[in-house]
Amino acid sequence: MSGEPKKKILYELKAVDQLFFRSSIPFEADGGSHLLKSHFPPLPGTYGGVFANFIQDEKKAKALRISYNGLLINDEFYFPQPLDMFIPDIKSDQALQVMNFYQPSLSKFPLDLCLKSVSKSKDKDEQDRWIAEKQLTNYLKGCQTVANEESKLLSDYLPREAKIGIEINQDKRKAQEGMLYQIEMVRPSDKLELAVQVEELELAATHVKLGGEGKVAHIKQKEMDKDVRSILDKELNEKVQSKYFKLYFATPAIFKKGWLPKWIDEETKIGEFSYRKRKIKVKLIAAAVGKPVAIGGFDTSNGHPKEMRYAIPSGSVYYFEILSEIENGFEVARSLFHEKCISDYREGLGFDHDYFSRTRLIYCDRGFGYAFIGQLTEQQHKEVLKYV
Q1: Is residue 103 over pLDDT 80?
Q2: What is the pTM of this model?
Q3: What share of the chain is helix, strand, coil (3-state, %, to 5)?
Q4: Number of Cβ within a 10 Å radius of residue 352
């Protein structure tokens, strides 16, 4: 039946050798000593090409839908540290804390509230730190502090190795003079695997080419001891009565207005989000957004590079106030946003589509903007009532 939810299958990919995922930096083999670094984990769009290769029908390949994509460390799900969390002291075993709200001191600040840490550690590892599933569950349940013992630095599981190569003249089938280049490969630890959730595509265990340089990874279905549609703890399904919520992005999201989603008005920061018969009106009141991530790629069907886009990084957090006069507003928000891909850009369509005209386009199809809904902390609730 068309009304039944689509089956989602979770796959785990384990590197057989080194891996290389190109960043957005132009690759110019000019004989210089520039080192082109590998991006890790791969951007969500990378998986589209991997799984589309198993689909014979071109139309079905373009309709491929990917949702969750992330990491497994020691066979446990790990997620980028939320950007509204910090370590208050230099000691690495200190608990992670959620930032509190403050009124912005600048009159031109775009939102009602800003987030501020009181960290003395000057932690440079925030973009490198990943937290365990249980840690993220507690964070989304509104805990002010989250134990840090289970968090990991990705660099500890990802040795990097330089590789020198030379461009080949395809016509003469020999090395091109002066075209020496250097790239940085990654060699994931045996304890580190990639995890990807794909809709309606069942594959037997096999090997696939992953990333650049023709490198290989082993892929197989991951056996789950719980509903594959729910990655986090069932505790998150408890009823919540609140007119405020936060959205945590586990993967980068591409928005038409830069850091602001297409459906949010630039002046008022108010917008409506709907899917089928559910709709909610919200106001963006605060955000923790990191440095933009440049996303490009190569269009193999047309034989040229894709247009460069900028995305908010994984770990970004947006805080909303529910304006709709509806019962169970938080639950409506959960049904619309939780474990959904909230991103304006669509593969093959760009931004040029009516956001609400076709329900299948309301959510991103290739894993960008995979989001979880969470509660505010008790302290944040007090501050938002005082300031907003």
Answers
A1: yes
A2: 0.89
A3: 15, 35, 50
A4: 7
